[in-house]
Every structure is written in structure tokens, then in C-alpha cells.
Write a structure and sequence with these properties.
alpha/beta, Uracil-DNA Glycosylase, subunit E, 9 helices, 8 strands
Length: about 190
């Protein structure tokens, strides 16, 4: 099954309540054979309009950071924990994340990245509940992650995760911005180590 077919199938099957208020689903985007997958929180206003993740100001900042490490968007894959925009850009609710989780896992199984970069606390807490982004940002986490959705146990296809501050948060806080840039520069070094 291609990623496009996977997205269409999951869009039809997904029971996420955000589907009712969003303009369209925002599928993951980028290199289907990427070693690096970035996972954000949820689509925003610009993403809801275009159907592409990280195209607003946070996406532009992400593109700038990628160029700092001699990469482009075409080299990586970018997606979100939920595939539909929450109303008024509110945080996605736990049940919304759970309803989109099988879709996200299938997406990752298709790509088989070496490392998953978790952008922000929502993405982090989807995979590592109870961890604080301020404590683990920029640190490589190695763990086999499993989820239970309904009666089904889902295992993640990889075991390396790098939590980073979300680009949107860093845009409004100079100290966070510098921290995120420094953490981002670790990506090529970490990739060589794993």
C-alpha cells in the first residue's frame, strides 16, 4: 500500500471528531524513505487551508533550521499527531490523539525512519506520557513504544526519539529559539550514532 492509499483509507476510517470542523485532512508530507520523521502536534490555520503540514510561520522556521544542517524538506517527512485542525487552534484532546494514533503508526511503519523527532510537548507526551519537554529536549530517547487502542496493542516500528521544542513556541521566546537551534544542530550527529 502506498502512503497516499494509506492516508485515503485512514481518512475514511478515522473517527476523530475534529473531522467535522476541519476543512480537510492534513496528511504527512515529504520523503517516503526518510531517515527522519518530524511529528508536530496538529495542523493550524495555514495547514487546514493547504492540506500540507508545517507551511505557516513555524514551518518556515523549520525550513530555516533544516537548511542550517544542510537538509531540505524533501529529505525528511513531516506529520502531526492528529490529522485535522482543532477549532481555534486549541490543543488536541486525548481522545482526538487516540483516534488518530493507528493512522500515525501505520504512516511510520510505511516509512520506517531511523529517528522520530518529537516537536513540542503534545507530540512528546503522545509517545512518552509524563515526560516534560523542558527536561528531555535535545536528549536522544531510546525505547520500544507500545500503545493500547481499544483492545489492540500497537508497537512502534522504531526505538529512537529526539524531543525538541516546537518551532511555534520558539518563535515567540528568544531563549527557547536559541535552545531549539542548538538542539537541532545535534540531529546529523545523532543520525550517525544510531
Amino acid at each position: 500500500m502506498t502512503l497516499e492509499e494509506l492516508h485515503q483509507k485512514n481518512h475514511e476510517l478515522c473517527t476523530c471528531s475534529l473531522k467535522e470542523t476541519a476543512t480537510q485532512p492534513v496528511f504527512g508530507n515529504g520523503n517516503e524513505k526518510a531517515e527522519i520523521v518530524f511529528i508536530g502536534e496538529a495542523p493550524g490555520k495555514d495547514e487546514d487551508k493547504t492540506g500540507v503540514p508545517f507551511v505557516g510561520r513555524a514551518g518556515q522556521f523549520l525550513n530555516e533550521m533544516l537548511s542550517m544542517i544542510q537538509m531540505k524538506r524533501e529529505d525528511v517527512y513531516i506529520t502531526n499527531t492528529v490529522k485535522y485542525r482543532p477549532p481555534n487552534n486549541r490543543d488536541p484532546l486525548p481522545e482526538e490523539k487516540i483516534s488518530c494514533l493507528p493512522w500515525l503508526v501505520e504512516e511510520l511503519e510505511c516509512i520506517k525512519p531511523k529517528i522520530i523527532i518529537l516537536l513540542g510537548r503534545h507530540s512528546l507526551n503522545t509517545f512518552f506520557p509524563g515526560e516534560s519537554i523542558s527536561q528531555v529536549h535535545g536528549k536522544l530517547l531510546k525505547k520500544k513504544v507500545h500503545f493500547v487502542v481499544g483492545e489492540k496493542k500497537i508497537s512502534m516500528p522504531n526505538e529512537y526519539y529526539l524531543p525538541l521544542y516546537h518551532p511555534a513556541a520558539a518563535m515567540y521566546n528568544g531563549a527557547l529559539r536559541e535552545t531549539l537551534i542548538e538542539d537541532f544542530k545535534k540531529i546529523p550527529i545523532i543520525l550517525k550514532q544510531i
